[in-house]
Fold each of these.
Amino acid sequence: MKKLFTLTGFFSLLWIISCNYTNKPNLCTLDTPWKFKTGDDLSWATTAFDDLSWGTIDPKSVWEDQGYKGYNGFAWYRYKTLIRSTLRDQKRVTDSLQIRLGKIDDCDQVFLNGKLIGENGRVIYGEMNTSGDFIKTHGRWNLERRYVLAQDDPRIQWDKENLIAVRSYDHGGPGGMFGKTFEISLTGLRDYLKIDLAATPFIFSGDTLVTKEFSMINLTGTEHFKGELVVEAVMCDNDIRIFSDRSLIDLAPHSKVDKSFSYKTNVSSPALLHVTFKEATTREEISEIVEVPYILTPESPATPRINGARVFGVRPWSPFLYKVAATGHPPLKFRASDLPEGLVINPENGLITGSLKKKGEYVVKLTVENQLGYADRDLKIMVGDLISLTPPMGWNSWNCWGLSVSDKKVRQSADAMKSSGLIEHGWSYINIDDGWEDTHDKDGNILANSKFPDMPGLCNYVHSLGLKIGIYSSPGPKTCGGYEGSYGFEAKDAMNYATWGIDYLKYDWCSYGKIAPDPTVEQMKRPYQEMKHALRKANRDIHYSLCQYGMGDVWTWGAVVDGNSWRTTGDIEDTWESMSSIGFSQWTCSSSAAPGRWNDPDMLVVGWVGWGPYLHYTRLTPNEQYTHITLWSLLAAPLLIGCDLNRLDAFTMNLLANDEVLAVNQDPLGKQALRVRKTDDYEVWARDLGDGSKAVGLFNNTEKLLYIPVEMHDLQLDGKWSMRDLWTQSELGKVRTHFEMKTRPHGARMVKLSQPD
Ligand code: GLA
């Protein structure tokens, strides 16, 4: 009888071993299906509850993809697993058990054997209050969940069945668990000893010298780590090791060692940097591999070159402000022949100002000259109803400074836009996002808060540099950041903006959701119509940027409410998942883009970002950043730099100052690229350009090097075409039926196909 019991015990033990110990005794993966149910009941956290009737779900993707489309609200996940003591067969710093649960959208509470072990997340509108105190202070949907317990924590049942229960709440959009890493392990060397390569970017000096600083950080207060540090740089194209360095490292508890190295290379050739630490006593290793950025954009020539938009829209009587963007060895002299009456050009800085009274079209010949030569080009001025005939290019405060934006930071950004030279590549807006507002005064005038003591002065300052300035508000009573919105004050606000000299308004739905919960498309249009009328009465050309995350397929009606651009998605983050899922989803709205009417897949996440006040260098790899800028240029997307312009490194400048890439974004035909081929591994997008040529982007969605084939019939091109690489600005020869391009992991290639002369 006793034996029988043991056998039954053995089989039931087998049945509950749902986690997979792989071939590593110290790691148990939790990525097999979990039990799942929508709804909310705290008894679902307990081991006594029987979840036999529940369905199952893959934790690696959100519930929307698994039969729960459109579901928002609470849902529970449950997973039973044996936690074996073999997990402890590790060598160093094994004091804690950690449970990694991928990411959870939006927020979660996690229970182990019925006891709460941690929680993360926030819900903006406060619905969570109705269900107890489950409300936090930070948006955490994209945060890797890692719950850590001391080894001797009584909530852990060693060598027995354990129940992990996750109570999740989704406020809107995709919901629930997703991500890559679902596992139980003991903490180890890699959790306490960090190789921090992200703190500073790579520095390039000239065409050949690469310098990198990084740190080794000992996070424990008890352990002393000694060992060997090996740093190697290996070329991606031929696996040749171009740099190798070994050194001894001695890290006392809670200490940091800064390292720096330099090597000579060709900065346009991609390489990988391997950093490995070999711990002396146990020989355990931890390592990091990162892509070394590589610079493809050639230096601008010393002879003059005219950049930026070739077509400019203005309304009759509105103040005209167009800066001729031009590179070349200074000093440059600017001229414009056939300027219509009412306009003048400043020969020193290329600013065209004035105003035009009548509707009509004018072609102006621009000339820029220096001691080495001259360049000329036509500018078409269209005086009519439509403005923003090419997508706006500029900077916005949100992705770097968040709500910590201030007058000083805006002025510094404007200064940097000029001093970095970006202004000479066509970048022209300096946009203040949320965080500037105070209240409306007794006469209904919107007041700026103490961080912005002089709005008209700030506008004047930005204009004096040849730049334009933008602002932010919400049609609701409050903005997303909780500041004063425009609800009930639309006409007054528009008038105030115009009087200050504002050129761009981002109008963000946010708390309007309280006024129109569950809105119909007609209700979605209403507040945007209202502000449209207000702006039109203000007699200033203010780019009208709708921000309501694509609700009600805004691209099908954004033009009706006079939007010049409309956000098509939720907020972007500096991760591959966020950037690529937003960018590659834009095929749905391609046909709606036209001059003056742009789909907006959100702002750029290159350089130092962070949503303020603390910044970090973008988590996108260099190849992912090439994808980002290539795709946004093909998409005819507004290009709003989201980083601190005062900390532009050489690689970021290389991304933002490639005039041939930017010319695709600014192409006067205003056609958004279409996706012409998609496989599991790659996508090809193509865009018709005004001069009869085609811009084509090849995108590698895998983590391996790929040779991406392109069929000319997919591009609807016959005959012989000349192909130019836009990033390197070099000719690639002729092509007839197909071509193939080596494309790096998560990277992109961008070419232009033109009819040979
Ligand atoms: C929303 C928008 C962001 C930003 C913030 C400001 O989240 O989508 O781009 O404007 O509001 O609070």
Amino acid sequence: MRDLAIVVLAAGKGTRMGNALPKVLHPLAGAPLLAHVLHTARALQPTRLVVVVGHEAARVEAAVRRLDPEAAVVVQEPQRGTGDAVQVALPALPDVGTLLVLYGDTPLLRPSTLERLLAEHRQQQAAVTLLAIRPEDPGAYGRIRTDGAGRPVEIVEARHAPPELLASDLCNSGVMALELELVRRLLPPLAPHPEKGEVYLTDLVARAVAAGAVTALVEAPAEEGLGANDQRELAALEARWQTRRREELLAAGVVMPAPDTVHLALDTTIAPGAVVEPYVVFGPGVVVEEGARVRSFSHLEGARVAAGAEVGPFARLRPGTVVAAGARVGNFVELKNAHLGPGAKANHLAYLGDAEVGAGANIGAGTITCNYDGVAKHRTEIGAGAFIGSDTALVAPVRVGAGAIVGAGSVITADVPDEALAVARGRQCVREGMAPVLRERFRRRQKARERKGEQDRRDERA
Ligand code: UD1
Ligand code: CA
């Protein structure tokens, strides 16, 4: 197999998104658009992956470094069109082999489609193979003109296309496989289009044909070529992405009775047989293992829910959370950077932050780890089998030993040894028969207030 290099074009501006964030960094399924494309690109195991950045170059470059540290970044400045972008990338690419061109803002492209494109490219021994789409509204897409045998002979941008070509719905998705040898020979001399001052990568097709090279095309579902030009289109992409991913999870055996109400992230991992109840939101970095159940109205990010564990309804798991096998997190419980040991329970109304909870421990309703002193975060450790009574404040750093019991309503500021009982609250005081006395006192005071009120009103009138 020939070497595969991939270039991702991500230098464009995306003015219509309506905010300062570069278009390719807008989030889809909890990850930047660019992350989706890099993910797809990596799935093809290229020997070289190059990202062309330009608009907000430093910011996009930083994102690339974070998302795919192996990828090379080249800066295109100024941005003189797609052809210019590939030219700028050429020094960072191998001399020969196949080059796959992708756009940083088309997140629905599937690796399997690209594999089909590359297979056809090789089989036809083509120098240029286009990924064509037939969108419902071909609008501004470049149109592909073909010969009698269905081979591409040129791409004409919509603004330059004659009416008969504009009537065609065979459109350029932008994705193409190119032989680097041909690109090096034919691309650099490409001249900018006088009207827009841009160098069109698409002009390469007619040049390749003129040079006697073989061209080919593969059709893909129109969805895969979709990008987002504004927030409305981005939301539409999100909806399509969610639908697709839910279907994959259902097909794999995840139990999701109301899939339309479950919001997933690019990297959400849910094991077959796990249950996700209606109305659950997954932020980035969540793993749900087999036999686990995520109940309704829960919000999870950066968390692992281990086998047989149960979370929610109305649970919030924040980054750094592990709910170990068979553990339970109930309603209105928030965990952050917290490890709940096997079989441990925090069933109601609690906050566990920067905490380590041992196996089988029981965290009573209203328990709070006071992990922040206004300056720094501190850890709370709760030993295996410990019992924390309701409405306990654990002032970190603090450790409650294994098997210890903490009385309800305690404010725990010092370590509690294993198997100890700690009660830290005001002592209860009982005075027999005092209630009627108190009530009589309160009634007398109330009467006195009423009498004073009447007197004041008389004085005012006088
Ligand atoms: C391009 C194609 C068109 C195709 C359409 C599909 C050309 C000339 N036209 O048009 O045939 O139907 O995509 O969406 O190629 N970019 C750079 N540097 C630049 C310019 C663009 O990196 O100087 C990047 C953009 O960030 C974007 C991609 O290239 O990711 C496409 O650029 P865009 O301006 O959106 O091209 P279209 O006009 O949509
Ligand atoms: Ca575009």
